[in-house]
Amino acid sequence: MHIRIINPNTTASMTATIGEAAQRVAAPGTRISATQPEHGPVSIEGHFDEAVSAVGVAETVLAGEREGGIDAYVIACFGDPGLAAARELTRAPVIGIAEAAFHVATMIATRFSVVTTLARTGIIAEHLLQSYGFAHHCRRVRAAEVPVLDLERDPDAAVQRIVEECLRAKAEDGIGAIVLGCGGMAHMRAQISETVGLPVVEGVTAAVKLAEGLVGLGLQTSKHGDLDFPRPKPFIGRYAHLGT
Amino acid sequence: MHIRIINPNTTASMTATIGEAAQRVAAPGTRISATQPEHGPVSIEGHFDEAVSAVGVAETVLAGEREGGIDAYVIACFGDPGLAAARELTRAPVIGIAEAAFHVATMIATRFSVVTTLARTGIIAEHLLQSYGFAHHCRRVRAAEVPVLDLERDPDAAVQRIVEECLRAKAEDGIGAIVLGCGGMAHMRAQISETVGLPVVEGVTAAVKLAEGLVGLGLQTSKHGDLDFPRPKPFIGRYAHLGT
Amino acid sequence: MHIRIINPNTTASMTATIGEAAQRVAAPGTRISATQPEHGPVSIEGHFDEAVSAVGVAETVLAGEREGGIDAYVIACFGDPGLAAARELTRAPVIGIAEAAFHVATMIATRFSVVTTLARTGIIAEHLLQSYGFAHHCRRVRAAEVPVLDLERDPDAAVQRIVEECLRAKAEDGIGAIVLGCGGMAHMRAQISETVGLPVVEGVTAAVKLAEGLVGLGLQTSKHGDLDFPRPKPFIGRYAHLGT
Amino acid sequence: MHIRIINPNTTASMTATIGEAAQRVAAPGTRISATQPEHGPVSIEGHFDEAVSAVGVAETVLAGEREGGIDAYVIACFGDPGLAAARELTRAPVIGIAEAAFHVATMIATRFSVVTTLARTGIIAEHLLQSYGFAHHCRRVRAAEVPVLDLERDPDAAVQRIVEECLRAKAEDGIGAIVLGCGGMAHMRAQISETVGLPVVEGVTAAVKLAEGLVGLGLQTSKHGDLDFPRPKPFIGRYAHLGT
Amino acid sequence: MHIRIINPNTTASMTATIGEAAQRVAAPGTRISATQPEHGPVSIEGHFDEAVSAVGVAETVLAGEREGGIDAYVIACFGDPGLAAARELTRAPVIGIAEAAFHVATMIATRFSVVTTLARTGIIAEHLLQSYGFAHHCRRVRAAEVPVLDLERDPDAAVQRIVEECLRAKAEDGIGAIVLGCGGMAHMRAQISETVGLPVVEGVTAAVKLAEGLVGLGLQTSKHGDLDFPRPKPFIGRYAHLGT
Amino acid sequence: MHIRIINPNTTASMTATIGEAAQRVAAPGTRISATQPEHGPVSIEGHFDEAVSAVGVAETVLAGEREGGIDAYVIACFGDPGLAAARELTRAPVIGIAEAAFHVATMIATRFSVVTTLARTGIIAEHLLQSYGFAHHCRRVRAAEVPVLDLERDPDAAVQRIVEECLRAKAEDGIGAIVLGCGGMAHMRAQISETVGLPVVEGVTAAVKLAEGLVGLGLQTSKHGDLDFPRPKPFIGRYAHLGT
Predict the structure, then answer these.
(1) How many Cβ contacts (< 8 angstroms) between chains B and F?
(2) Smallest CA–CA distance from F131 into chain B, residue
(3) Share of chain D above pLDDT 90, in %
(4) Given B111, E16, F60, F71, which is the most exposed site by the fewest CB atoms within 10 A?
C-alpha cells in the first residue's frame, strides 16, 4: 500500500518532517512518500495562502496519478486545502488532516479543543468544524501564536508555547482531548501529550491510519455525483496542462 | 493487535458471520475475536432491545478487560448501544459501527443515504446522525423492511430487498454512497456494492479499520472527564458484580 | 390518577425523598407511588451507571404494567435513562425529569442554566439539551461538584454548594431561571429558589405535573412507529423473562 | 385556580368554542374563563393579522391583571402572537398553544407533523418550530387549505379536509402523532384522532394542562431579565393608556 | 427613488436624527422621508414595546401606500418590529435595520459582535440572529446599558459607554467588526468607528443602501406565498379601518 | 465609484455578457469594468475548476489593486470561489454572487429555491447555504442540467430548461422567489422572472447593488483578524510574484 502525503506548502524541510511522522505510524506494509507542490507559499497562514496551495495540492495529486500506484492521498495542512478538488481527480481516497483529526478525536473523547498556530487561522478550523459537523464536539479553537515556520526555526520554544496553551485548554475547557491544528506539529505529538497529560490527536498521523483503513476496506472516492472526475474542458494560460 | 468484536445481540450465528466479515478486512497482524453477551435479546430492533443490549455490551467489555490483551473493542450493532458506557470501562478505544460507517462515508462521498432493516429502527440512526453531527451529510434514512434475523434466515431475499432500496436511493437521493444500517449486513457489502454500482460502507468492517488505526496511533479513550472509569459504588441485586 | 415515579437508582431512601417531593405537588386526585429497580447502581453518575439503570427502569415499567392501573410513569434521574425504551413498553405516557425540567423552564424564562451534581455528568445534560432541541435556551451547564449520595449524607452542605453555583449562574449567565440537574435535589427546590432569588425548576416535580396534564388530555404514547410495543422475540440468560 | 384563555382573534363564537374545549379538559378545581380582544381581526391568517392581534393579547392580559385573581394565561392562536410581550405584563405563567402542542407532542411521539389551516400560515409554524427548538421533531407542516372561519361555518367539511390531510401525513411522513395547527380546531381533536387512528395533539387543551401544571408547581414568569415588567415610559396616541 | 424610513417609536426627535443619518448615506437620486407611528411607545426596550410598535409600523406602511410613490420602507428599530407584517402590506421592499446590519457585517468581516443598549433587549437580537441564520457569525451580543432615550438626552455619555463596550468586544471577542444594536445610534457610527478602530456597521444606514439596491434591481416583495397581501376580513374596534 | 466584476472563468464572451448585465443595474455614477483571469478553466462546473479559478480571482484582485481606483470587487461565479482569499488582498469590499443572491432573496421572500446549471455543482450551493447560514431559508437546490457554456451556445434552449425547472420549483417547493445559480444567467433574469411569474434573484446584479451600498456606506473589508492582508512570505515557482 502506497500513501502519498502532500504537504501543501513548499517548504521541503517541513515535508520531510511530516513524512517522517507519517512513516512512524504507518503499518509494516505501508509505503509512505511525502511531497509538496512545485509552486506555492512556503507556509499557509490564511485564506490567500490556502487558495494558492489548493491548486498545488490538486496538481500534486495529478502528478501522483500519472506516476501511478498510489492508493491514497493525505493533504497535510490543517485547513484541508483543495480537498474536494483533489477528490475529483482520483479514485483513490483523499483525506485532509483536519477532518482526520476531528474524526479520531470524537472516538476517544466527548469534547476536545483545537490548539493551532495563529489566531487568524483559527477561523479556518472553525469553518471546517461547522462544515464537517463537528462544531458541537469542539469546545474552543485556541492559538499558541506561533507562526508556522517557527515550528521549524525554534521547535523548543514552539513546543513550550503549544504546551502552555494545551494546559490552559485542559484547565478551562472541560475537554478530554486536544487536537493539534497544524501539520507542522506532527512530530511533536508524543512530547506534547506526555507533558500535558491528555490524549493529543494530530492530523497527519491520524490521516495515515484512516487512509490505511479506507484502502484496506477497498473503498474509493465515489465517482457518482459531485466527486466524479472533472468535466472535460480547456484551461487557459499557465493552467493549459490541466485542461482536456 | 487484538480487536474484540462485540455483537450486542445474543445470536451466536450472527456473531460468527460478523466475526468473519471483520476478519476478512483485518490487517495481517490483527487478531479478531468475536463474542456476544451472555444475556440479552436475540436481535435488536428497537429502543428496548437496545437498552438491554447496552448492559450486555458493557459486561462483555468488562469480561474482555479481565481477560486482558485486548487493544480495541467494536460494538457491532448500528445503534451503537452502550458506546459511552463501554468507553468508561476500558482504556482501549471503543468504536460503534454506526459512527464508524458515518465517519468513513463522509471521506468518500459528499452525501450518503442509510439503508437499514426496519423503519422503526431508522429513528435510532436519525438520532445518532444528529448527535454525532452527520445529519447534513445524510440525505435519507431508508428501510428495506427486513427483520434482523431474516438476514440469516433468508439471505438471498434479504439482499434482494436491500439492493432494491439501495437502487431507489441511488436514483432519488442525489448521493455518492450508501451506508448499510445493520451489523448483520456485514458480509453482504461487496455483493450489494457491485450490484448497486455505488460505494457501500458497512460499519463492522469500517470499525475494524478505524480500531486498527487508533491502536496504531497509540491513542486510547480519554480518562480525563466523562469517559473516566466509573466512580466506585455498590450495585444491587443481579448487578452486584458490577459494583465496587 | 396513578403516577408511578421510578427512581432509576437503587437507593431506597432517595426514592422516598423523591416520592415525597412528587406527592407535595400532586393534584388532590393524583396517587403517587415511588419505586426503584431491584437491580442496579446506588447512584447514577456517569454513562455506565446510566446504561445499567436503563434496564432497571424498563423492568420497573414492566412490573407496573403487570400490576396495572398506572396512568403515567416518571423517570426520576436527570439523564432520562431508558426513556425511549420505557415508552415502548406501555401505552401510558412516560416522562423523563430532564425533559420535563427543560420544557417547563422555557415556559417561564427565555434563557436558563443547569446546575447539576458533578462535571462528569454535565455532558449527559448537554447531550439531552441537543437531542431534545433546547440547547439554545440553555446558557450553561454547571456542576456544584456534589456527589449524588452526598445530597442525602450532608444535605446542608449540598444545598450550600448548589446555592453558591446558582448564584454564580445568576450573576454571570444572563438567565431568568435555574434548572436543577438531579432528581435527588427535588426536595431542595423551594429553599434554593428562595435563597437564590430566581425561579428554580426541578424535574421530578415538573414531570409530575406534565404527567397529570397528559393523562388529563387522554393522550398516550403513540404506538404508531418507533414507540410501538417491542417486536416479539426471545431474550437469553438472565433476561429470558423479558422475551416473548 | 383560574386560567384565562385569550382567543387572539375577535370572533366571539370561536372564543366560546375554544373556552368549552378548554373547560372539557380542565381539572375539577380549575376555573376557565375565555375572552378575546376588543380590537383586532376576526381571524388570524398571516403576519399582519398576527401583529395586530398581539396588541390585543397584551391588552387582554393587562385587563386580566386589573381584574385580578388570574393564575395563568393561555394564548389560543397557533402563532403564539404576543407571547413574549404578554409574559412581561404579569407574574402569572403565559403559555402559547403552539408551544404547548409541540411540548406535548414530543412526549408521546418521536416525530410529528403539523396540520394547519392555510399554507400561508404554515410558515409561522415553521418559524416557531425553529425558534423553540422543535424543528427536528417535526417531519412536515401541512395545510388542509381551510380558512380559519370555515372551521365554524362548515365544520363537517372542515373536519373532512383536515382528516384527509392527517391521513396523508400518517401514510407519508413516518410520524407517531399529529399536531393540529389552529386554535379553532380545539373541539375537533377527539373526532379527528379517532378517525385518523393516531394520537392528535391540540394546543388549547395542551396549554390548559401545562398551565395547571405550572401553577401547581408555584412557578411564575421570571422577572429576572427580558421578561421583567416593561420599563416605565409614555405611550402616545391611542395607546396612551399603556404608558406609565 | 423614495425611501420611507419608519422610526417605530414615537419620539419625533429621534425620527429626525435617524432621518438625517439616512439622508447622509443616500444616493444623489434618493429621497429620504422619515416618519413615525402616531400611536405607540416613546422608545422600544422590550417585547411589549415592540409588539405595540409593530402595529404602528404596519399602519405607517399603509399610510405610505395611500400616499403613494414610495419605493421601499426601512424599519428603523433593531428588533425589526412588524417586519413580516409590513411586507404583506406593500409590493415595495421592506427592510429591517437588524437584518440589514447583519447582512452587511458578514460581507466585511468573518465574525462580529453586537453592541446594543440594554441587556434585556439583547435577547431580541439573539432571537433575530438565530431566526435569520446569522448566529454563528456573531460572537457575542453585548449591552452598553444605555437606555434608548439617553442616546438623545446625553449623547456624549452614551457614546462613551458604547465605545467602552466596543473596545471590550474588540479586545475579547476575536471579531472583525461591530454591529450597533439600536436605530438611535445611527448618527454615532463614524465617531464610534474611528475611536474604536474597527469597522462599525449600523442598521439604518445599511438598510438605506440595501433598499436602494433592491429598488435598483427592480425587485419587490414576493406576493407568492406568505408575504401576499392580507386575506380580506373585518377588523373590530379601534382597528376597524384595517379591515376590508 | 468603480466596481470591478471578476468573471472567475476565462471565457471572455461570458465576461462581456456578465459585464453588460452588471452595467444595466448600476447606478448612474457607477463605473463597471468586467474582467477575467488570464489563467484558468473556461467554465466552472465542479470543485477542481473552482479551486483553480480561486487563484485566478485572487490574482485579478491583485491586478486591480496595482491598477488602483477600484472601490469594490464582485466575484461572478455562484460558488464564490476565492472569496475569503480575495478579501485578504484589498481594503475594498469583495462580494460573491452566491452570497449576494442569498442576502437579497431573504429580503423579498421567506423561502426560496435555487435553480443552478448542473446537479454536480448543486452541492457547492448547498455548502455555501450552510456556511453562510441561509440553509433554512432555501427549500431546495435544483439543477436545470444545462452545462455552463451552453448558456451561451444555445441560450434559447437554456432559458427554456431553466424556466421549466423554475416552474417546477414554483409548483412544488412552497417558495416566494427563485435564485438563479450561475453567473452566466445574469442577462436572463428579467425574461425568466416574467415567464415564471415569481421574483427571480440573480447574483451578479445583486452583488453590484450590494457593492454600491457598501461603498456608499464607506465600509471596507475589516483588516482586524482573519481578513487582514496576508502575512508576508515567499512564494515558490510560478507563484513567486505573489510572495513578498
Answers:
(1) 6
(2) B136
(3) 100
(4) E16
Do residue C88 and residue C6 come from a single domain?
yes
Q: What is the mean pLDDT of residues D82-105?
A: 98
Interface mutation vs chain D, best among F106, F110, F137, F170, most D CBs within 10 Å:
F110
Whole-angstrom distance, CA of residue C212 vs CA of residue B121: 30
> Confidence class of residue A205 from pLDDT cuts 50, 70 and 90?
very high
Say whether both E30 and E114 belong to one domain: no
C 93-152 residues inside an 8 A Cβ radius of E? 110-111, 136
- Over residues E4-63, the pLDDT tens digits come to 999 999 999 999 999 999 999 999 999 999 999 999 999 999 999 999 999 999 999 999
Mean local confidence (pLDDT), A50-71: 98
**How confident is the model over A57-67, as a mean pLDDT?**
98
- Does C236 lie in the same domain as C190? no
The packing angle between helices D12-25 and D203-217, to 10°, is 60
Chain F residue with CA closest to B176: the answer is: F120
CA nearest B131 in C: which residue? C131
E213 interfaces chain F, CB cutoff of 8 Å = yes
D43–chain E nearest CA distance, Å: 8
Number of compact structural domains in chain D:
2
- Cβ-based burial of C224 (10 A; exposed 0-12, middle 13-18, buried ≥19): middle
Chains D, F in contact: 3+ Cβ pairs under 8 A? yes
Q: Do A174 and C130 touch (CB under 8 A)?
A: no
Question: Same structural domain for residues F60 and F88?
Answer: yes
Q: Are residues E20 and E47 in the same domain?
A: yes
User: Do F46 and F115 belong together in one domain?
Assistant: no
CATH code for the domain of A126: 3.40.50.12500
pLDDT in tens, E165-192: 999 999 999 999 999 999 999 999 999 9
- Beta-carbon separation of A176 and B214 below 8 A: no
Contact (CB<8Å) E111/A119:
no
ipTM of the complex: 0.97
pLDDT at F205: 98
Subunits with 3+ Cβ pairs within 8 Å of B are A, C, D, F
CB pairs under 8 A between E and F: 150
Q: Which residues of chain F have pLDDT under 50?
A: none
DSSP calls for chain F: -EEEEE-SS--HHHHHHHHHHHHHHS-TT-EEEEE--SSEESS--SHHHHHHHHHHHHHHHHHHHHH----EEEE-STT-TTHHHHHHT-SS-EEEHHHHHHHHHHHH-S-EEEEES-HHHHHHHHHHHHHHT-GGGEEEEEE----TTHHHHSHHHHHHHHHHHHHHHHHHS--SEEEEE-GGGGGGHHHHHHHHTS-EEEHHHHHHHHHHHHHHHT-----SSTTSPPPP--EEGGGGGG--
Give the per-residue pLDDT at B199. Answer: 98
Q: For residue range B164-220, list pLDDT tens digits in order.
A: 999 999 999 999 999 999 999 999 999 999 999 999 999 999 999 999 999 999 999
Does E126 share its domain with E176?
yes
> A168 at the B interface (CB within 8 A)?
no
pLDDT at position A177 is 98
Task: Please tell me which residue of chain B has the smallest CA distance to A217.
Answer: B25
DSSP state of C148: T
F174: which chain D residues are within 8 Å (Cβ-Cβ)?
Answer: 119, 122
- Number of Cβ pairs closer than 8 Å across A and F? 163
The Cα of F80 is separated from the nearest Cα of chain B by a number of Å equal to 19
Domain that holds residue C128: 98-203
Q: Least CA distance to C176: which residue of chain E?
A: E120
Amino acid at B122: G
Measured CA to CA, the distance from residue B103 to residue B141 in angstroms comes to: 16
Q: Do both B196 and B234 map to the same domain?
A: no
Q: Which residues from E are below 8 Å from A123, CB to CB?
A: 110-111
